[in-house]
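Postdoc handover notes: sequence design on the structure in folder B. Input tokens:
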């Protein structure tokens, strides 16, 4: 049996690592904030003392951290002690150019790398129903796909190194459009004197219905701004979208607008709230 490592046990990574353990895999975990790893002590997982300790024990290492530089830092800490042929599977959302670079450099050093960003939110992580976009060597993907099925309802190979992140950028552009559509619609309904609960119910059943209406609508009705996916993370991802759009000559005006509006919430100190808090900004008319 392959020994698996999991680095990054946050809102997404914690449940994903849990699904691997529940599926019967031998798992070693590590998290920068040690308390998030300690909760795995009674699950059968081993808690590594360091990234180097984790790397020397594992055949496949999954990462689910924050930014491009976090992924690079973690991998650079692990490669000196990792076994030749170790597969790194990165579930973080990072720059596609950084992902492509990691494919090249890790291959040159005798390792393998799959960029495998995820979508489905914290609810998808908890239920094990994430969608995963995978870029890299197809034979390597075929080797790790059964492992990812522990927490993915759709695990898709989309092309060579970096293409998984490119697909995630397309996803985030669509997510941004759905988010601003939902928040603007319900903010309009509130200003118009409509019952926003009824508005959300009626619109969800017609052409306006979407994942955003189903999952963010209840949070808006409850004024619950606790994050599944934070504003800070969404704006970080939009920055990567703009980077790629500039490189390929794509126009993404809706994404740029949504990023601008969410950035207003960050200026107000609300960056760790859910992206659905955009409704609050629009409903209060603070975007004008």
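Designed sequence:
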């Amino acid at each position: 049996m392959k020994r698996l490592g999991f680095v990054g046990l946050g809102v997404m990574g914690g449940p994903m690592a849990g699904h691997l353990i529940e599926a019967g895999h031998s798992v070693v975990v590590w998290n920068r904030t040690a308390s998030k790893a300690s909760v795995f002590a009674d699950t059968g997982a081993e808690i590594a003392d360091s990234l180097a300790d984790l790397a020397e024990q594992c055949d496949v290492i999954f990462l689910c951290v924050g930014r491009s530089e976090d992924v690079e830092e973690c991998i650079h800490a692990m490669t000196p002690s990792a076994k030749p042929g170790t597969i790194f599977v990165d579930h973080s959302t990072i720059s596609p150019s950084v992902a492509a670079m990691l494919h090249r450099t890790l291959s040159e050093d005798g390792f393998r790398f799959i960029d495998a960003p995820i979508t489905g939110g914290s609810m998808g992580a908890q239920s094990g129903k994430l969608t995963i976009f995978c870029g890299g060597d197809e034979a390597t993907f075929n080797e790790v796909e059964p492992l990812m099925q522990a927490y993915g309802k759709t695990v898709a190979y989309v092309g060579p190194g970096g293409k998984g992140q490119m697909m995630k950028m397309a996803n985030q552009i669509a997510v941004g459009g759905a988010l601003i559509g939902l928040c603007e619609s319900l903010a309009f309904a509130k200003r118009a004197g409509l019952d926003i609960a009824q508005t959300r119910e009626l619109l969800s059943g017609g052409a306006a219905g979407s994942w955003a209406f189903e999952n963010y609508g209840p949070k808006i009705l409850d004024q619950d701004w606790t994050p599944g996916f934070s504003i800070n993370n969404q704006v970080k991802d939009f920055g990567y979208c703009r980077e790629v759009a500039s490189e390929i000559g794509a126009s993404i005006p809706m994404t740029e607008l949504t990023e601008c509006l969410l950035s207003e919430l960050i200026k107000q100190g609300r960056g760790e709230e859910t992206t659905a808090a955009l409704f609050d900004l629009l409903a209060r008319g603070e975007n004008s």
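Context for whoever picks this up: The radius of gyration is 20 Å. Don't rerun without checking with the PI first.
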